[in-house]
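Fresh eyes needed here. Have a critical look at this protein's tokenised backbone.
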Amino acid sequence: MQVRIYRPAKTAMQSGRSGNAKAWVLEYEPAAPKQPDNLMGWLGSADMTSQVRLKFATAEDAIAFAKKKGMDFQVFAENTRLQKPKNYSDNFRFDKLEFGRF
């Protein structure tokens, strides 16, 4: 079975580096496409492995688990966060050039 190992990005509802952003996730690749249900129109699949998400503290733990179970895995690198330092006092600098404001 093909699995992917990645560290999920934080959701828009999170303000800090907590929750899902700390754990590494092992997730199965979808084996069957999702199809709409005839009665309700909801998307579903007969593939039960699409519901399985395993969380690990480190990427090495997830890789060791995948190797132990004989799974083919692909590790996605973690996206680095770019932080621009901002100061509140920069809003009121005298040397700041702004055009169109009088």
Remarks:
- The chain has one helix and six strands.
